[in-house]
Amino acid sequence: MSDHPILVTGATGKSGRRVVSQLRAKGLAVRAAARSTEHVFDWNDRGTWDAALEGARAAYIVQLDGTTLVRPFVEHAVKHGVKRLVLASGRGIDNPEYANDSGGALDGLLDSEAAVRESGLEWTISRPGWFAQNFSEGFFADAVRAGEVRLPGGDGAASFVDAEDIAAVVVAALTEDRHSGQIYELSGPRAVTLAEACSTISEAAGREVRYVPLSVDEYVAELVEQGLPREDAQAFADVVEPLRNGTDAYLSDGVERALGRAPRTFAEFAKTTASADGWAA
């Protein structure tokens, strides 16, 4: 088994590092690959691909947004004898009304999914919605620590999914036979508004975190004032559109189908994060 490790790309990211941790907890050999790890992997440097894939029996593919690099990477994987692929994709990519794709990510996601399905290998696709960890490690984390989340999210809600659940589904797909050919859309068990999320975090962290709803124009203007190019500011506003419109509020059964249990609640995420000082300044 140690001669044929499981490759995890994006191994320092929110899902990737949790996949690495959960695989190692099972005593499995893991090749954790990213630009800053021992096994250097860079999507933009194809010279790093072969060393990452050499001898691997399975691979978790965390793609680079806005690119179509997964298809040639999969071709390399086939040549190296990889048997199983698990792709990180995104919820809502088959819904043209889901969000404004000003960042150009959709075409890449669709091509990546097609590439793994057409590979001839065992494959599974993970389609998570909004990560709960965006409040602790990502998009909203600094605002939460500052005590005020200012977003053009309106009163919309999202069924935030815990990255630990995402990783658990990926680990199951990498290590168990029954997930081949499955597409798992992943969400939490209930839709939560930004105001509810901030209230839940406040209770868990023992300090006030306020949600301040902004219009899109107000949000873009604030980001531009902070030095962001207007085009990038508008792209950030577009990212929040599924929250504002409630298009990510629906529930998916992927966690339960893959793991045989309910997904973790946002309150459980907040309590765990606060206990680990995840919102320390």
Automatic annotation (TrEMBL):
Domain of life the protein comes from: Bacteria
InterPro entries: Ergot_Alk_Oxidoreductase, NAD(P)-bd_dom, NAD(P)-bd_dom_sf
Domain NAD(P)-binding: 10-176
Protein name listed in UniProt: NAD(P)-dependent oxidoreductase
Organism: Actinophytocola xinjiangensis
